[in-house]
Amino acid sequence: MKIRLLLTGKTEEDFLKTGIREYEMRVKRYLSFEITEIPSLKNQASLSHAEQMMRESELIQKQIMQGDVVVLLDEHGKEMRSTEFAAFLNRQFLSGGKNLVFVVGGPFGFDPALKARAGYLLSLSKMTFSHQMVRLFFTEQLYRALSILRGESYHHE
């Protein structure tokens, strides 16, 4: 199974890029992992929030293939401890699915059409983080979950 992380817009801060690259390389030791950045919308300021969500949703859905399991990183999603996330990943691996696609959307959330397509909504915290920070937090948690599944010492519990 391949894991993909879809992002709307670019990661701006160098310190975040460095951290994301570090965890991306660690994850790739375990499995096929790809990060895809979907360009920001043009003339974003002239669009309503609903229009932005709809257009981002269309761009995101073009990146999703039939048979992909889609997980939206959404503030209203299910919260999991790191060990629960590891168990979730393990269930996905055992299901024999094609790809597992995690999506970080734009600042206004996800369009209802994309939510309807998604298999899961996952929240990283009850706190609000910038979309830039979520990228780093997610890649670290993905690495942590994979190290848990391998019984490695990265995670202490």
Structure commentary:
By secondary structure, the protein is an alpha/beta fold. The protein is built from 5 helices and 5 strands, in the order E-H-E-H-E-H-E-H-E-H. It has helices spanning 14-28, 49-63, 82-95, 112-117, 131-149, and strands at residues 2-8, 33-38, 69-79, 99-104, 120-123. The protein has a 5-stranded parallel β-sheet. Helix 1 links the parallel strand 1 and strand 2 (33-38). Helix 1 runs parallel beside helix 5 (131-149) and helix 3 (82-95) crosses helix 5 (131-149).
Strand content: 15-25%
CATH class: Alpha Beta
Mean pLDDT: 92
The tally of helices reads 5
Structural class: alpha/beta
> What share of residues is helical?
40-55%
Write a concise synopsis of the structure shown.
The protein has 157 residues and is of the alpha/beta class. The chain is 44% helix and 22% strand.
Name some characteristics of this structure.
157 residues; Alpha/beta knot; 44% helix; 22% strand
List the helices and strands and how they pair.
Blueprint: E1 2-8, H1 14-28, E2 33-38, H2 49-63, E3 69-79, H3 82-95, E4 99-104, H4 112-117, E5 120-123, H5 131-149
Parallel strand pairs: 1-2, 1-4, 3-4, 3-5
Helix pairs in contact: 1-5, 3-5
